[in-house]
């Protein structure tokens, strides 16, 4: 059987930095060549970064991407890497769009090219364009219709791109018809909880369908609200995992493969599969080298171990925060420390992401701040080593109230707004990025003050439900203890009852149901998109369902103004869940729906919130 040493590079590209990304690709090629690889595969759109959004439609950006791709084979050859075959993702475009398409520029394509010997040897355009959740690829790209197969050292190597694996038919089925010995797939697949398990099963199923080894390489790093976790994989057609890269880190995964020798006639042919335009998927073949390599001793490949869910989420948040700060050219962050769990977790994440020296925590006590809130904030500062200062807001609030008469909620919110103004002032003065500390449960129900605690440039835990904020805090502390380090989060911040401290003896539960119940209901309403009848059928108290749905729906305007933050769930507030702000639609009151029969309760009334 021919042998091939394959390298998969999970690299952290920067959207729009085509020159920097090309340099990353060259460095990966140097490393792969140093490791003795014959074929290197880089992620989807590695030259441009992912996702490029409306940059895909800009003629200047298309031209720059095509130029960088055209220059890369020569750069590889000049660096003595001409013998290494390199598959790299880039933005392509046919020069001009037909006038009837109404598109401003050429027809953009989400493409991958195989480079070898100083030339672009073959090109492939992604067939399946994801257009759900966070993806809008049908807005940007025209789909490809061909399967590209390149004969390399006597092995037929087919190429597909990301979503091509998630949809039935097309390139994977064509790979089997083509009799390819290896399917390589560049990806840009964003992280969400439990997605790694789903991906592994998907890759196993597609390897079986393609009838050959499948090499899946994913990008890594943060881009606005998305975090890419890497987790690149090589799987045999019988489902065996031959190699697996770690999550959330740059990595070069190298694996030696014994692959079937190519036997097909090296000419283009139609497959039996229907392409997006109704025609046949055409199998295009290119011969690079038919001769197998001389036999060599294979090296064992690494299979990274899985980590606990809490660690996975913590790492995603750290990478999302670090890359947002770094890629937007900030060096430091600032946040208000209330002594509560949310600001403590955000501070600990920031210290892990940027180092304590780049994190500034400010205690901003008001007349309602308890002693423990100040002590717990100081304890957090001592445990983590972040910069800590105090600005008393009471005199500013009093001066304001002396000029403008505000009472009740307006007075409560003023305190949050004086804090927000103070943090933004310090940001302007010192160049720190302000971190907003709201969690997903609060965002869901609108439990934050506009231009108050909702100010900021980035919101690290906006997709983390409150119950998970506690879970990751406990995990982070336990992990520190296991490593003989000081746990960063004060146990008191974890254990105390949550309070906004905007009036005497205030508790979150004055306005909200207990968080375990609230998160349970929000998971069903927001993430699973269940209507009120279904929620009641699941056993939630009808009055609670009505109240929570009203709060969630009414807070859409607040969420739209909230800073971006890393997505860790299957449905974040942002691109995954797009609802009108101005809307008269109300979920039918539980039991009142005329077109949806209300199923019988599966648990006694009151079991899920009847007493809340
Ligand atoms: N559809 C719409 N489109 C655009 N703007 C809209 C709007 N509806 C109201 N508004 C505006 O929004 C204002 C109301 O919003 P806002 O001023 O934020 O105030 P609001 O939502 O009324 O009150 C803030 C709530 O958050 C709680 N809170 C505050 C601070 C921290 C925490 C915490 O523990 O984390 C909790 C606080 O206890 C209170 O329940 C209205 O006065 C109006 O100007
Ligand atoms: N006394 C304070 N000093 C500094 N910042 C504060 C103070 N009180 C509130 N904040 C800021 O406002 C955010 C909202 O705080 P609040 O205590 O009202 O609610 P929370 O959502 O329970 O947050 P936390 O768990 O951090 O207390 C805090 O995370 C913090 O960044
Ligand atoms: N870039 C893509 O095509 C990503 C879509 C794919 N379903 C994923 O999340 O992995």
Please give a structural write-up.
- The chain contains 18 helices and 20 strands.
- With 612 residues, the chain is an alpha/beta fold.
- It has two domains: 3-287, 4-Layer Sandwich (Nitrilase/N-carbamoyl-D-aminoacid amidohydrolase); 309-560, HUPs (Rossmann fold).
- The strands form four sheets. An eight-stranded mixed β-sheet has the order 13-12-9-8-7-6-16-15, with helices on one face.
- It is elongated and about 85 Å long.
- The protein binds nicotinic acid adenine dinucleotide (DND), adenosine-5'-triphosphate and glutamine (GLN).
- Residues 409, 412-413, 416, 442, 446-450, 452-453, 500, 502, 511, 557 line the site of nicotinic acid adenine dinucleotide.
- GO terms for molecular function: ATP binding; glutaminase activity; NAD+ synthase (glutamine-hydrolyzing) activity; NAD+ synthase activity.
- Deamido-NAD(+) binds at residues 413, 442, 558.
What keywords describe this structure?
612 residues; Nitrilase/N-carbamoyl-D-aminoacid amidohydrolase; Rossmann fold; eight-stranded mixed β-sheet; six-stranded mixed β-sheet; binds nicotinic acid adenine dinucleotide; binds adenosine-5'-triphosphate; binds glutamine; NAD+ synthase (glutamine-hydrolyzing) activity
Structural topology:
Layout: E1 3-10, H1 18-34, E2 39-41, H2 59-78, E3 85-94, E4 107-116, E5 119-125, H3 137-140, E6 146-152, E7 155-159, H4 163-166, H5 171-178, E8 182-187, H6 195-210, E9 213-218, E10 220-223, E11 226-229, E12 233-235, E13 241-244, E14 251-258, E15 269-274, E16 280-287, H7 309-327, E17 333-336, H8 341-354, E18 359-363, H9 371-384, E19 387-390, H10 394-403, H11 408-430, E20 433-434, H12 440-445, H13 466-482, H14 491-495, H15 515-527, H16 532-537, H17 542-554, H18 556-560
Parallel strand pairs: 1-2, 2-3, 6-16, 7-8, 8-9, 17-18, 17-20, 18-19
Antiparallel strand pairs: 1-14, 3-4, 4-5, 6-7, 9-12, 10-11, 12-13, 15-16
Helix pairs in contact: 1-2, 5-6, 7-8, 7-13, 10-11
The chain binds nicotinic acid adenine dinucleotide (DND), adenosine-5'-triphosphate and glutamine.
Nicotinic acid adenine dinucleotide is lined by residues 409, 412-413, 416, 442, 446-450, 452-453, 500, 502, 511, 557.
Biased composition (Basic and acidic residues): 494-510, 573-587
GO biological process, one term: NAD+ biosynthetic process
Binding site for L-glutamine: 132, 189, 195
